[in-house]
Amino acid sequence: MSKRLISLLVMVTLAVLVCGTGFAAAKTHRLTLSQQAKVSGVELRPGEYRLKINPDNEVEIYDGKQLVAKTKAEVKPLERELPNSVTLRNGNLVEIRLKKEKLILLGS
Asked: Given its phi and psi angles, is residue 40 left (phi above 0), alpha (psi -120 to 50 degrees) or beta?
């Protein structure tokens, strides 16, 4: 094989690898709590939080730039878009609805 062909193959392989990692990027959402809630034993005060849902369905909750809680979730698509909402059970955050997804928190 010529050097030119090998260089082209290397460039195409790198491009595929770089593009492939972009498809598995984490999703982020905003979450507003109107009352105190617990996630994995961590007490969250009422306020604004940022959710990061990783490709392995691990949910990270941030207050500003600080990670305050982390848990696994089961992600289920919803048939139609619904308003964002949360479900608490005995003070524990157990479910988050984000437009067309429902997160069932497994660590709460």
From this structure: left
CA end-to-end distance (rounded Å), the chain: 58
Report the predicted TM-score, pTM, of the whole model to 2 decimal places.
0.73
* Cα 51 from Cα 103, distance rounded (Å): 11
Among 38, 71, 33, 40, which residue's Cα sits nearest to residue 53?
Answer: 71
Tens of pLDDT, residue by residue, the chain (108 residues) = 566 656 555 555 555 555 544 456 788 899 999 999 999 999 999 999 999 999 999 999 999 999 999 999 999 988 888 888 999 999 999 999 988 888 898 876
DSSP state letter for 61? E
Contacts 24+ apart (CB under 8 A), 78-82: 78/102
Q: How far apart are CA 18 and CA 12, in angstroms?
A: 10
